[in-house]
Write a structure and sequence with these properties.
two-stranded antiparallel sheet, 1 helix, 18 strands, rod-shaped
Length: about 130
């Protein structure tokens, strides 16, 4: 084996032991990172391995990477939101998916959306108040 390669591997291992640098063995090679993507190392805190390619993000949607804090993968497409309603994305803080349709509210009563703080669902009918 090449002496330069051996010295570099020792250097990486020393740095890893000093907690300045993480090293991992990927397919027999010493690489920087804490996870392997094929023969390459990467850091899972900022990157993800999507179909064998290292990308910035924390989740994969097919071969594309995205950040789950602001996006969601709906039927293989990255969209803005935090939940899917079929192929569409929405924000659960203000919306709900009722029978496959995105509506404004925080609960469903059949195909209708309503707010549980001021309304109630009585046998499939939304009524104002908290009692049927």
């Amino acid at each position: 084996m090449n002496p330069k390669v051996i010295l570099f591997a020792i250097f990486l291992l020393l740095l890893a032991n000093l907690h300045c640098y993480e090293a991992i063995i990927c397919n027999g090679y010493t690489r920087s990172g804490n996870a392997c993507c094929g023969s390459f190392g990467y850091y899972t805190s900022t990157q993800v391995c999507c179909n064998g390619v290292i990308k910035s993000g924390n989740a994969c949607c097919g071969s594309f990477a995205y950040y789950t804090s602001t996006q969601v993968c709906c039927n293989g497409v990255i969209k803005s939101g935090n939940a899917c309603c079929g192929s569409f994305a929405y924000h659960t803080s203000t919306q709900v998916c009722c029978l496959g349709v995105i509506k404004t509210g925080n609960a469903c009563c059949g195909s209708f959306a309503y707010y549980t703080s001021t309304q109630v669902c009585c046998n499939g009918v939304v009524k104002t108040g908290i009692v049927c």
